[in-house]
Amino acid sequence: MIQTKNLTKIYNGITAVDNVSLEVPSGELCVLLGPSGCGKSTLLKMINALVPPTSGEIFVNGKNTHDIPVELLRRGIGYVVQNVGLFPHYTVMRNIGVVMKLLNKPKEDIEKRALFLLDLIGLPRSYASRYPRELSGGEAQRVGVARALAADPAILLMDEPFGSVDPLNREHLQNSFTEIQKTLKKTVLFVTHDVSEALMLGDRILLMQEGRIVREGTPGDLVFQEGDNFSQAFFGSEMALKLLSRYRVGQAYTKGMKIQNAACQPSRVGEAIPCLVSGNMPLSEALSLMIINGCRELAVSGDGFPQGTLSFESLLSYFRKGAPNVQ
Amino acid sequence: MYNKLKLYVPPALWLLLFLLSVYRFEWIAQWLSFLGPSKGALRARAPLSFYVFQHVRLVLISTFFSMVLGITLGLLTRFRPFREFKEPLLQTATFLQTLPSIAILALSVPLLGYGQAPVVIALVFYGLLPILRNIIQGLDSVPEEVRLSAAGMGMTPWQRLIDVEWPLALPAVLAGIKTSVIINVSAATIGATMGAGGLGVLIVNGIRTMDIMLIIKGALPVSLMAFLINSIFTLLEEQWFGNRDGVRL
Q: All domains of chain A, ordered by start, with CATH?
């Protein structure tokens, strides 16, 4: 659990963080969202004591961070930064093991854990002996996540972790991080300026402007409830489309239903069967397929999902205002 | 394998030339006989290797102290009370470097008298700048995100310096030491004028007696020694850092 009370940071007379009180309950992925310069990164760095607060208190797992020696505090918190910051003179294995080594874990444990983490983040084990310069941007960022997870901290701080990766790789990273988070249930504070990323990953989003938290809520709340001018402008009018990427076809389709409209029969569309989709497909992609193929219905099957149909109408009613599904 | 072996060729060649210039100077003197007869060059009081040994000892001692001083001061600038002194320190070292070596010697003789001590001290200050500058710049050029993540993972300032910043700055430090040694190999010739011995003795005597061959006898090993040292450092750099990402200057 992360908690701050009346946290303020003033740099040379400029208030970067202004009296922020927030709470991230255990197991929640909380996104700090805002334009650059809104103080989100400073707020994050105060939690692992990289930036000393001007006033206010921070509690990590119920303990005031002021009472914990900084090095001990930081070793208990996973930290991922934008440009990864892997040590260029360490192999991937040693990079992943840094915090465990600081905690004096035996060498065999470190090696075992590093290999486990390589599996978890989806990199081949042979990468253990590589140097960071031999990795692509996306791979290096995965190793950065593995390094943060190495000592199995309850808390992760992520500062625009996927910001410097190209869009395709970013999506891969976001998807695999979502999967990892589903199983590990870390308490995550995730800083980003990317609305899509916030809507896709966050259990809850805190919107920051000029050092203050101006709005908070689940992604569904933020999209469906009206906000002030800043919030509306920042989220943009296509926010509902971005929200779709959070959901899977499997959540919104009707089981057992056959495709009604003959024009959308999978067999009619061609060999690639573009109108047959897996239940794991994000709804955003499903909607995109409907638009491209001009059909209001998609056949669903595969990946363990019983056969059924996703129609445009069922998509709309799934997101009906105030529907219980929307979080 | 072939590429590895290739690295050893330049140092081996320079070593051969250097040894030739020391132990077989008469061959070189024969090739250069068109320069005229030489009285002093072939009938010296001591063998050439004696002066070479003196010279090398001067360079080694002064480089050792330059390194100790430069590295200590450079590392100190990473810690709080000394951080403010980084710029003044660099400026002082740059100033010392711009003084002609003969001037530093002239200044230190009244204080320390003749002999090796003033020469060593002058050479130490003279060779300080390249080491100090490169260690400071090397440490400064460690990427910000590396520094940030090292701190964020809970490394103490000392661990960050020793395990992360220092190894990344090492190629730059080595380059600084190389420059320092080479500067001192040539600057040490001035030591002869202060009674510290070394190959400068031959050069100074040659100038005094207008004996070109004697000047060459002293100057040739000095320049070959500089080339030899340069090639050895290049080899070391290739061996240690050729294969990894460090900070290069």
A: 2-244 (3.40.50.300), 249-318 (3.90.1280)
List of domains in chain B: 2-241 (1.10.3720.10)
Q: Judge: B167–A89 Cβ closer than 8 Å, yes or no.
A: yes
A71: nearest CB among B148, B156, B246: B156
State the helix-helix crossing angle for B116-126 and B128-140, rounded to 10 degrees: 30
Q: Which of A89, A99, A130, A158 to mutate: most B Cβ within 10 Å?
A: A89
Question: Between chains, do B245 and A85 touch, taking CB under 8 Å as contact?
Answer: no
CA distance A177 to A28: 14
Structure ipTM:
0.82
Closest CA to B136 of B187, B175, B95, B185: B175
**Residues in B touching A98 (Cβ below 8 Å):** 153, 155
In sign, the C-alpha dihedral spanning A245, A250, A253, A257 is positive
Q: Give the separation between CA A86 and CA A187, rounded to whole angstroms.
A: 23
> Which pLDDT value is given to residue B244?
54
For chain A, report the end-to-end CA distance as a whole number of angstroms: 21
Chain segment A190-247, per-residue pLDDT in tens: 999 999 999 989 999 999 999 999 999 988 888 888 888 898 889 888 888 888 888 8
Nearest-by-Cβ selection for B152 from A48, A131, A133: A48
Task: Tell me if A83 and B156 make a contact (CB, 8 A cut-off).
Answer: no
User: Quick one: A80 exposed, middle or buried, by C-beta within 10 A (0-12, 13-18, 19+)?
Assistant: buried
Best mutation target, B144, B146, B153, to test chain A (most A CBs within 10 A): B153
Distance in angstroms (rounded) separating the CA atoms of residues A44 and A65 = 13
Q: How far apart are CA B169 and CA B142, in angstroms?
A: 7
Taken in order A61, A64, A69, A74, the sign of the CA dihedral is positive
Indicate the pTM of the whole model: 0.80
Round to whole Å and give the CA distance between B160 and B152.
Answer: 11
If you count them, how many residues does chain A have?
A: 327
Is A282 within 8 Å of A248 (Cβ atoms)? yes
The helix/strand/coil state of A93 is helix
